[in-house]
Design goal:
470 residues; alpha/beta; six-stranded parallel sheet; 12% strand; binds nicotinamide-adenine-dinucleotide; binds uridine-5'-diphosphate-glucuronic acid
Length: 470
Amino acid sequence: MKIKNICCIGAGYVGGPTMAVIALKCPEIKVTVVDKSKEKIDLWNSKDLSKIPVYEPGLNEIVNQVRDKNLFFSNDISGSIQNAEMIFIAVNTPTKTSGKGKGMAADLSNVISSAKEIAKFSKSNKIVVEKSTLPVRTAEKLKEVLNSHNRKVKFEVLSNPEFLAEGTAIKDLFKSDRVLIGGDQTKTGQVAVESLVNIYKKWIPKNKILTTNVWSSELSKLVSNAMLAQRISSINSLSSVCEKTGANINEISKAVGMDSRIGPYFLKPSVGFGGSCFQKDILNLVYISKFYGLDEVAEYWHQVVKINNYQKERFASNIIEQIKKSKVGSKVSILGWAFKKNTNDSRESSSIYVTDVLLRNNINVSVYDPMVSKDKIVSDLLNLWRTKKINKTKIDDLLGRLKTEINYSDAIKDSNLTAILTEWDEFKLYDWKALVKTMKSPYAVYDGRNILPKLDDKINHIKLGVAYKL
Ligand code: NAD
Ligand code: UGA
């Protein structure tokens, strides 16, 4: 079946970039991205490309090239569903905050409401593609919802999980390690799989397009994220052993990663992984394992998240300990709010956790990030405090101790301690010798990403990261 019209529900970090690349590589296909948020769609349609809601290197150029030619951003959900032969669901699937599975299972309400809308507006047969990350066997539930709400048309459900990483999304989409497509082993299921294969074939070599059954495809996505996160927790857990023994975690990471059976990737020690997916997907895997009575398996994977929390707690406690020793004020500057470099996304960023702990310990905090806005920084903290049920008076008190700066030197000036929490390249290029002189003595720089060059031989390898004492 030749696809001429695609609709994607969800104009976020996945829907936007993936559809932009499909539109670029398949000029004969009309691609429409819809979202329930009018504000977001308006931003995607901004004339000023610096306002589009997702910052990704290379994305603006593609949007500029294909928007309003064969890529459209629209609020017309019903019309876009009606016109499309293939509909991607790329909506958010966060961890549930209430009900059965609270704090562990994925909240599928956005996926289910998308399926209901597809069923409601479809007047011809559709191929529905799961692009969101979903628990294994969600396709079964989706089919049930689609068929029970519309008996007139036929739906094929495919699983096509997304493996892009933020900050390198366009590069990842152009040169994917693999594209995974899961479909029913029936004749119509295989025709649907072939239609999607034909789209990716336009730029992905055929041997990198993997077709599997639906359940393997759904589960492979959770397993990929769990394996990646597990490597980070493994190296981070050993950073504390290094601190006790005098070994250097960077040297360990290099030595271990040079074993070709292990490989060098995802072995960078850090103040803990962030991002909207690793934690939620592992908790989801833990929940699924428990659901099937596999308690040992659940506990094994749960430990990856527990070590990540331990690493964040350890880092924050070390700062508090250091600040308590200081008798000349208590200001900490936080450099980096995004959960990694080259993105404006701060979901689950370690900076949120560390800043919250510092503020609640009566420490003044000033934050600088080159890409994340002041409003976003404040709203990340407010969301956290609301979930912790902190009252308004206390929130005002905490906010009174927070400053966000648009200039890194203002954030650093007069602080006792600077903590680097995102590995932005610009942080490496600052004149640190000059900057530390603007801090209050005795000052320290805690490099939570181990990115700064060695300034001189007085570097102390303390805790996680490096404290510079010049
Ligand atoms: P996001 O929050 O950036 O975007 C999701 C969008 O869906 C939002 O704009 C929201 O308004 C919209 N939406 C939700 N319900 C809707 C509905 N019923 N109708 C219309 N619009 C609706 O999320 P994201 O980061 O793009 O992630 C989407 C999915 O992709 C998740 O399942 C995630 O786990 C997965 N994923 C994300 C990444 C990533 O790097 N962010 C990578 C791979 C996979
Ligand atoms: C991750 C996966 O890499 C993608 O393949 C996947 O598609 C995506 O999750 C998803 O499902 O959402 P992402 O979270 O965007 O992508 O970014 P990563 O590069 O994986 O980094 C995640 C976190 O781990 C960041 O906070 C990063 O700084 C941290 N990290 C990464 C480390 O601390 N050490 C490392 O060695 C690598």
